[in-house]
Amino acid sequence: MGAPDNERFRLDGVEVVRDGRLVLGPVTLSIAAPGPVVVAGPSGAGKSSLLRLLNRLDAPSAGSISYRGEDLSHTDPTAHRRRVAMVFQRPVVLPGSIADNLREADPRLDDAQVAAALDRVGLDPALADRDARNLSGGEAQRMCLARSLATEPEVVLFDEPTSSLDPTSALRIERLAASLDDHAITAIWVTHDLDQMRRLAAHVVVVIDGRIAQSGPAAEVLTDPCPAVAGFLDGGA
Amino acid sequence: MSGGISIAGVAASLLLILVAMAISRREGLGVEGSIAWAALRAALQLSVVGLGLGLVLANDAPLAWSWLWVAGMVLVGGITVARRVPTVTGLFTLTCAALSVAVVVSLSVVFLFGIFPMEPRTIVPVAGMLLGNAIGSTVLAARRTLVELDEHRDEIEVRLSLGQAGTAAARVHVREALRTAVTPQIEQTKIVGLVALPGTMTGLLLAGVAPKDAVLVQLAVMFLILGSVAITSVIVGRGVARRMVSADQRLVLPAPPA
User: Fold this and answer.
1) Between B91-112 and B120-151, two packed helices, what is the crossing angle to 10 degrees?
2) Per-residue pLDDT for A3 more than 80?
3) Residues A9-20: what's their mean pLDDT?
4) Best interface-test mutation with A: which of B152, B153, B162, B244 has the largest number of A CBs within 10 A?
5) Which of A149, B97, B122, B233 has the most CB within a 10 Å radius?
6) Would the CB atoms of A94 and B249 count as touching at under 8 Å?
7) How many other CB atoms are there within 10 angstroms of residue A165's CB atom?
8) Residue A2's pLDDT is what?
């Protein structure tokens, strides 16, 4: 289809208008593997709006989005969401046991697969039958990651997943995200935390006031930021 | 008939309206006008309905008039529900479809099994009882479905993000809304006769029908009502949920009314 092999998302003139107000765009952007790709910017800049478009939980008001060269408006949204998983800001625990939660992603998972999925995110497989509501915040978020990975995605979108977690739990989630590339999964991670961005990013997309202020390899953006991004990096944006 | 009542009798019952207005005035409730208007409106509406029913239920009236009357009730039901839940587009059509299904299913049981003979004086009142009760639960089903979807937006979006279709992602929450919608009718069926005598039975007793016969008619009507409430709630609850999921499987809830 003409897209580079490593390109995941391409956005062309994408806009999001909510209640008559332009909250994002126009955005023209290419997001490629490998990751992690960190989408950074001040609170309210439009980062989460951008991320939700990639999972198709929201639709753009204008412009087009393609995934691996396929226009998203022509693809099956449920199939797309299984290829592009999402971990939300707050861990959303569904009713039932931890195994029940994982089986929401794939009802055919057997006990051994559930155990392997929990082990992958550093949770004790013996917890599988425990009520998921009894997990701590950090454990719940790791379970949510395991649940998202159960669809065997190619990309995982993280929407500030550590904002409600203690620093130790946050670091564990970060390490898990960083390790996804070893499994050919591209992590796209939204944050307003500069330290987290520096720790995690291979590529950076900086969103300011609903527009892409700068994007590129992390080393490049961090060492040679444009004036708007320099202001954000200095904590002034 | 021993249950007959004169105009003077109705006028005497207006005394109670005056009592209600006096209470409102004395207690400073400020609803005297509303009480008077409600009484007047009820009198006008029922007079018009009575005149219409006189024509429809006349001995030589064709059966088609009764069915037209029922169709009219379905339309008014659709308008009522759509007005009470204005944020859902297409609710009028959905409600009319649901009420029609409930009427067809219930009246088929009534007439095919010979519970009542198929004639104007059974078609119109039985359909009226079914629809009157189904409309309340239909409004409840539509409203509760919206509330459940809104309150559990996070869970639904998680399920969507895992690749579930919109209707599957919303299913448990719609189920909860439907449970809430049919519960009042179930409770009413459970306590019937213990707290208050239901409308049909009261009417029959006042008209001089033997209590045993009144009970049998009331039981049949209550079972039909419960069935109709279940049918309309399920159709409307699910239909509303389907309207809250876009073609590309996103949750699209209406903005709350200003």
Assistant:
1) 140
2) no
3) 94
4) B162
5) B233
6) no
7) 21
8) 60
DSSP state of A109: -
Closest partner CB to A57 (pick from B160, B163, B165): B160
Nearest Cα neighbor of B73 from B135, B128, B139, B133 is B128
- How is residue A166 annotated by DSSP? -
Query: How far is B164 from A205, CA to CA, in rounded Å?
Result: 30
Contacts of A79 in chain B (CB under 8 A): 163
Q: Which whole number is the average pLDDT over A34-58? A: 93
H-state helical runs in chain B: 7-26, 32-56, 63-84, 91-112, 120-151, 153-161, 166-190, 199-206, 211-243
Task: Give A16 to chain B, closest Cα distance, Å.
Answer: 15
Residue type, A146: A
pLDDT tens, position by position, A112-129 = 999 999 998 999 999 999
Band (A4; pLDDT cuts 50, 70, 90)? confident
CA distance to partner chain A, nearest, from residue B89 (Å): 19
Asked whether the beta carbons of residue B159 and residue A151 sit closer than 8 angstroms, the reply is no
Residue B170 C-alpha from the chain's centroid: 25
Give residue-wise pLDDT tens across range A80-111. 999 999 999 999 999 999 999 999 999 999 99
Distances (CA, A) of A48 to A42, A89, A116, A228, B138: 11, 9, 30, 20, 37
Quick one: closest CA in B to A84, which residue? B161
Mean pLDDT of chain B: 90
Identify the band that residue B1 occupies on the pLDDT scale cut at 50, 70 and 90: very low
pLDDT band at B256; cut points 50, 70, 90: low
- The region, left, alpha or beta by phi > 0 then psi within -120 to 50, assigned to residue B58 is beta
